[in-house]
Design brief:
Chain lengths: 66, 150
């Protein structure tokens, strides 16, 4: 297996892991908070909100302008 | 009650129509051009202004900004929850984020991209399809408005 294939395999594993967390989080009583509830909690704190908005700005600039 | 629902529907309709029109423009731009800079900068400035006005509105209506662990002042059921109340399982998201960011950085410092693809490199390939770029832009815009709202 070369570096390219290995990288794609690791990305696929990470993607599967994140998908599993998403699915587990929506199961009632799983104890894993949903992504929405995590973001809502961060939004309560001004520092969390500023951090997320700056990250959002960077993401948009990175994806659409650069 | 009905009036507020109508207003909310109207706002969403305006957002979808305006955002879609803007997404069409963004789709016609190419990165590293002035048009792409303007098409991306305008929503960023608008959302930043919206976020600032939301914070100012909170301060004016309550007399002080929301503090850590303070009482619920806004809308939504999660406002009053203490952070980290879900225990160890609550660490699933921070751990997932750390894994993604770490591997992204590993690939970023290594090269070439064809051998070590990053997330943005993969997204660039998807952005070549016009409707995927448009939907990505609308999703990004909706996330920004959601984050800026009180």
């Amino acid at each position: 297996m070369n570096a390219r294939e290995l990288t794609w395999v690791v990305w696929a594993l990470i993607g599967s892991g994140v998908t599993a967390v998403v699915l587990i989080s929506v199961v009632p009583g799983s104890g894993v908070p949903t992504l929405g509830s995590v973001i809502s909690r961060w939004k309560v704190h001004w520092a969390g909100r500023v951090t997320m908005i700056v990250a959002w700005m960077w993401l948009g600039w990175h994806l659409f302008a650069r | 009650m009905v009036r507020s629902k109508k207003r909310a529907c109207l706002r969403w309709l305006m957002f979808v129509l305006g955002g879609s029109a803007w997404a069409v423009w963004v789709d016609r731009t190419r990165p590293f051009t002035w048009s792409a800079n303007v098409a991306t900068a305008v929503p960023i400035v608008m959302v930043a202004a919206f976020a600032i006005s939301s914070v100012v509105g909170t301060v004016q209506s309550t007399g002080e900004p929301a503090r850590d662990g303070g009482p619920a002042r806004g809308r939504g059921p999660d406002r009053g929850e203490a952070p980290g109340s879900t225990g160890r399982r609550g660490l699933a998201w921070p751990i997932a984020a750390m894994v993604v960011v770490s591997f992204e950085l590993v690939n970023f410092v290594q090269g070439p991209r064809s051998s070590h693809p990053t997330l943005s490199w993969m997204l660039d390939s998807l952005d070549a399809v016009w409707w995927i770029k448009g939907v990505t832009f609308l999703g990004w815009l909706a996330l920004g408005v959601y984050l800026a709202r009180r």
